[in-house]
Design brief:
With 237 residues, the protein is an alpha/beta fold. It is 36% helix and 25% strand. The protein has a 5-stranded mixed beta sheet, sandwiched between helices. It has a 5-stranded mixed beta sheet with strand order 8-7-6-9-10, sandwiched between helices. Strand 6 and strand 7 form a beta hairpin. Helix 4 crosses helix 8.
């Protein structure tokens, strides 16, 4: 078995894999991700462990990780060469790049619009032959709520609402409607810009927005881990 690990902005996600198939998955939200990986691998040592991290893996951490597996594969800001094999630009973060690797495999021959709803909202485009055509980044849903509260003196911190009004009728509902409907208008414009594309949503808020949109959308959980599994399988092969 191989192990794929995503160390993101807010949480660690991991999964045992066999080929490109995900097995048991894990989630950890804490300050000691390397210790958590050590716990996962304590009873079973993976053949290949792929660790993708938003922050660069430090040399001491790399040495420790190498002791947990037979072979270590690192994807971070200092290890971009693996993703470049897939024709993806080196400025992409590993999560965006891994998601695109997964989408290329899952929807081969289809032009795709890929949206990841996390700390950031990323929008990326793939042509039918799998060529990366570019993409954009903006603030994610909860990041927008936090920014509105932080950079004003009077607006409260509001959490993501279950339901929203078309127009706000109070301070709280105007914030809720403004941010949620603003994101909906934003993503609808991207969808409308390439109406023939297959649309894929992923990330923590993906299901929330799938339910609010009228378009036909594929919601894929664990897309980053699926991409890491594909990368690991290609590496082993």
């Amino acid at each position: 078995m191989n192990l794929v690990v995503e160390i993101g902005n807010t949480a660690l996600k991991a999964a045992w894999t066999e080929g490109v198939t995900l097995g048991k998955t894990f989630r950890y939200q804490g300050e000691r991700p390397i210790d958590y990986i050590a716990r996962i691998t304590q009873k079973e040592k993976p053949k290949v462990m792929a660790v993708a991290s938003m922050a660069d893996i430090q040399p001491a951490e790399e040495r420790r990780l190498k002791g947990m597996c037979s072979e270590l594969l690192i994807l971070d800001g200092s290890h971009k060469q693996i993703l470049e094999r897939y024709g993806l630009p080196s400025y992409l973060t590993y999560d965006r790049a891994s998601s695109l690797v997964a989408v290329k495999s899952m929807f081969a021959g289809k032009s795709c619009t890929v949206m990841d709803f996390g700390t950031t909202l990323s929008v990326d485009f793939l042509s039918a032959d799998g060529t990366y055509e570019g993409g954009n980044l903006s603030l994610g849903c909860r990041t927008r709520f936090k920014a509105l509260n932080r950079y004003t003196r009077t607006l409260p911190l509001v959490d993501t609402p279950v339901e929203i009004e078309p127009l706000g009728l109070s301070l709280r509902s105007s914030i809720e409607s403004g941010i949620i409907r603003g994101i909906m208008f934003e993503i609808q414009a991207y969808i409308d810009s390439r109406p023939d594309n297959l649309v894929v949503f992923t990330g923590g808020d993906a299901i929330y927005f799938v339910k609010k949109m009228k378009n036909s959308i594929f919601a894929v959980c664990n897309l980053v881990l699926m991409g890491l599994a594909q990368i690991t399988d290609d590496y082993v092969g």
